[in-house]
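Run: sequence + protoporphyrin IX containing FE -> complex structure.
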Amino acid sequence: MTEQILHLSNKTVSNPAEYGPLRERGPLFRASIEGLESPVWFVAGFDDCKEILHDSRFIRDQSKLPGAEGPSLTDEMLAQVGMPQEYFKYFGLLGLSDGEEHTRMRNVVARAFTARRVNALRPSLEKNAADIYAALAEKKEGDLVSELGYPLTSAAICELMGVEAADVPLLQGWIMEFVSYDTERLVPAITNIVEYYKDLIARRRAEPTDDLISELAKPGGPDQDLLSDDVIIAIFMLLTSTGIAPPAHFLGQALLALLTHPEELEKLRAQPELLARRAVPELIRHATSVPTGGPLYAAEDFEFRGCPVKTGDAVIPSLVGVNHDPRQFDDPLKLDLARDLGPGVGHLSFGSGAHYCTGAALAQLETEVVINTFLLQNRTMELAVDPAELQYFDVPGKGTALGALPVRF
Ligand code: HEM
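>> structure
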C-alpha cells in the first residue's frame, strides 16, 4: 500500500481555519511540510499533542536514535537559511536534548528567568514602550514589528544577559541582520554576535558584575563542568533566537488582533483588570505566533492511538492546530478576551512538558506592558492598511510570520 502523504504549505500550517479536515485524518497523519525534505507525522489535536509532549518514547535528540544518520531536521532548517556549519554548535542547545542532560542544562538556563530577574525588567520595559509610543505618535505612523517588537524584546534580552547599555544598539543591529533570513546578511551578523559574546565573557571573567554573563562565567561557580565558552555562547544564542523574534512577531499579531476586533478592544478598555489574567493568555492562544513546536522522534516502534509509529519517525506538533481544536475550546476561531482557559496555562502556544518555554513569563509581561501602553493608556492608534494587504513571510518548515504592522496615529 502506498503511503498517503499530504503536502502542507507554510500558509496552511499557520492558518487555524484550515485545520477542520486535517484533524479528521486522525491523531497523527503523514505530511510533507514546505521547506522540509523528509515527510513527518503531524499532530493537530490538543489531547494527542499534549500526550506526545509528555511521552518519553518521543525524544528530541535524533543522534541518540539507533542507527541514526543524516542531518537532523534542525540542521536541515539551519542549512536552509544558509547558516555555516561551524556555527551549528551554537543552536539547539535545549531543544535538541532529553532527560538528565536536558534537565541539567535547562536548570542553568532557568537562572536567567528567576522571578527576580523577570520582574526587574518591568520598569525598563514600561519606559521603552512609552518612549517608542511617544516617538511613533510624534511622527504619526510606524511599523509595530520593526519599530516596537524587535527593539523592545531585544533590549529586554540584552538587559537580561548583562550586555552593557552602550553596546545595546550595536547588538540590536546585528540581531536584526541575523533574523533577516537572508544568507548574505545573516552570516556576518552571527560572526559579529559570536565575537562580541566571546569578548564579553572574557571581560566578565576578569571583572565580574551582578549580571547573568558574570554568573555563568564565574570561575569556580556551580555547573562549571558544563559551562565552556561555547556553551555560554550557545545559551546566549538560545535566548537571542527564542527571546526576540517569537515575542516580536507575537506582539505584532496580538496588536493586530485587537485592532481588527474593536468590540473586544472596547471590552478590555471597559474592564482593564482582564488584561493580565485573561486577555494576554487568550491572545497568545488565538495568535499562536509560533505555528509548530520543535520536532520529536520516536525512540522505538509502537502504536500511538492506533497509528503505527516506527523508530526514527519525526513528529511535528501543530500548535496552531491544537490551540484551535473545537474538542478543547468552544468556538475556537473566536477571539474572546474574557475566555477562561481553565486551570494551568490552558493553551499550548508555549509547548508543554519538559521543553515548556522558559521565557513564557517574560513574553506575557512584554505583552501586558505593550497593550497597556499602546491601546489602553493611549487610544489614537489605528491600522494604516487593509488587513488583507499585510505581508507574511515563510519560516522554512515552520509556517509564516507577520512581516510588518503599519499603523497611524
Ligand atoms: C510569545 C512569545 C513566545 C512564544 C510563542 C514561544 C514559544 C515557545 C515554544 C512553543 C517552545 C517549545 C518548543 C518545543 O516544545 O519544541 C518554546 C521553548 C523555548 N522558549 Fe519560547 N516562546 C516565546 C517567547 C520566549 C522568550 C521571550 C524567551 C526567552 C527570553 C523564550 C525562550 C525559550 C526557550 C529557551 C525555549 C526552549 C526550552 C527547552 O527546550 O527546554 N521564549 N518557546
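>> summary
The first helix runs from residue 10 to 13. Residues 82-290+328-408 form a domain with the Cytochrome p450 fold (CATH 1.10.630.10).
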